[in-house]
């Protein structure tokens, strides 16, 4: 039976066009239904235009749920969540809370999305703080899940232990890693390395049954396949994520410029276009669909603000996979045993 995923149609930098095109693409390629939240007077004509006329989309399982307001990237998260009570984010997450939809995706204001999800959905039993996770591409195929990447600037050892359990459960049930290796991000592999947070957390993680903890990992291990799940506090994780995005752009730009610099390299570029496109695809955030928010009572996926239609489609796909995998019940069951 198809799941229904709510898409905040007013979230991204190019809203609502990217969200609408992504929803159409998802409904044509995936076994999902989509509900678009936002002002109906904006979404209805935009959807009809994207479909090439109403009759061309008559059979697509897309509906519009009216929301009179939306939160912009420039809004301060805390005040916007309180003041915009009929925002496209809040309306969409309420559909999930009430069981009228199976998951939610937004490419909007990340801070507002996290605050709204915490308020509307609430937390899972045993989870003190939700965590935002993201997929990091690997040199050897299987990507790593990094969390937290920004939901919590400050964390304590108990939070990191919960992140490890949640990340392991997500990797097992959604990413289909049979026995995910969990690493603690630090500045060295030795137990004595790191700050007080990592040194206090490491011995606790060694005692946790049900996760395959492999010890400390370093920043370079984000991409070399050493671990399937990498745990850190949100400050470190966000810096690691943004640095990685910057390096990926630098490498792509430098390689492209080098290939255009001489006639010989231009010929080489034409001959290696397939390989170059494959390289770009491995580093492209739009392929991974967005960051799951783990620890809330429901499915919430947060995408990049510059998400295009492919990124929105993959965000819908990830939300559907998350909803069907029953990750949250597994997390609660695992945390009860701690």
UniProtKB/TrEMBL annotation:
Homodimer. Probably interacts with PlsY. Belongs to the PlsX family. HAMAP family: PlsX. Signal peptide: none annotated. Pathway: Lipid metabolism; phospholipid metabolism. Its main location: cytoplasm. It comes from Granulicella tundricola (strain ATCC BAA-1859 / DSM 23138 / MP5ACTX9). GO terms for cellular component: cytoplasm. It is found in: Cytoplasm. Keywords: Cytoplasm, Lipid biosynthesis, Lipid metabolism, Phospholipid biosynthesis, Phospholipid metabolism, Transferase. It catalyses: a fatty acyl-[ACP] + phosphate = an acyl phosphate + holo-[ACP]. One of its GO terms (molecular function) is phosphate:acyl-[acyl carrier protein] acyltransferase activity. Catalyzes the reversible formation of acyl-phosphate (acyl-PO(4)) from acyl-[acyl-carrier-protein] (acyl-ACP). This enzyme utilizes acyl-ACP as fatty acyl donor, but not acyl-CoA. It comes from the Bacteria. GO terms for biological process: fatty acid biosynthetic process; phospholipid biosynthetic process. This is Phosphate acyltransferase. It holds the Pfam family FA_synthesis.
């Amino acid at each position: 039976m198809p799941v229904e995923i709510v898409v905040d149609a007013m979230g991204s930098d190019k809203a609502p066009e990217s969200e609408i095109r992504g929803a159409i693409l998802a409904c044509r390629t995936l076994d999902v239904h989509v509900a678009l939240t936002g002002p109906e007077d904006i979404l209805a004509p935009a959807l009809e235009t994207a479909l090439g006329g109403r009759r061309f989309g008559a059979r697509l399982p897309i509906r519009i749920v009216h929301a009179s307001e939306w939160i912009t990237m420039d809004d301060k998260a805390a005040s916007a969540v309180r003041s915009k009570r009929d925002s496209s984010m809040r309306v969409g997450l309420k559909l999930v809370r009430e069981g009228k939809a199976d998951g939610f995706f937004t490419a909007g204001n990340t801070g507002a999305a996290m605050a709204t999800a915490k308020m509307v959905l609430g937390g899972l039993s045993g989870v003190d703080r939700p965590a935002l996770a993201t997929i990091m591409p690997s040199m050897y195929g299987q990507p790593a899940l990094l969390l937290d990447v920004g939901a919590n600037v400050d964390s304590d050892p108990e939070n990191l232990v919960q992140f490890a359990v949640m990340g392991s459960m997500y990797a097992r049930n959604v990413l289909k890693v049979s026995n995910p290796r969990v690493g603690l991000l630090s500045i060295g592999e030795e137990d004595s390395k790191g700050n007080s947070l990592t040194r206090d957390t490491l011995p606790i993680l060694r005692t946790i049954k049900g996760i395959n903890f492999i010890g400390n990992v370093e920043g370079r291990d984000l991409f070399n396949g050493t671990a399937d799940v990498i745990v850190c506090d949100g400050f470190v994780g966000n810096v690691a994520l943004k640095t990685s995005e910057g390096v990926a752009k630098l490498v792509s730009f430098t390689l492209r410029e080098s290939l255009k610099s001489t006639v010989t390299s231009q010929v080489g570029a034409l001959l290696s276009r397939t390989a170059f496109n494959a390289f770009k695809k491995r580093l492209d955030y739009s392929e991974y669909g967005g960051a799951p928010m783990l620890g809330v009572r429901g499915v919430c996926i947060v995408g990049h603000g510059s998400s295009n239609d492919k990124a929105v489609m993959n965000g819908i796909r990830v939300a559907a996979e998350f909803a069907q995998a029953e990750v949250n019940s597994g997390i609660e069951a695992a945390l009860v045993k701690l």
